Amino acid sequence: MERFKKIFQQGKIDVVEIWVDTQTGVNYVFHRNGNAAGFTPLLDRNGKPLVNHP
Q1: Sheet bearing 14-21, strands edge to edge
Q2: Does the model's pTM come out above 0.70?
C-alpha cells in the first residue's frame, strides 16, 4: 500500500493537487508552476492540519 493517495488534481501547467497520508489522514496540498513546486499540510482556520478520519 502506498502511503500517499492523490484525491484531487487540477491544471496542466499550473498544477494543484490534494494528497492524503493514508497512515495519519493528514491532507496536503501540492502546487507546481514551471520549475517551482511545494508540498505542505492543509490547515484549518485554527492552524491545525485537516485530517480525513477513516
Answers
A1: 4-10, 14-21, 27-33, 36-41
A2: yes
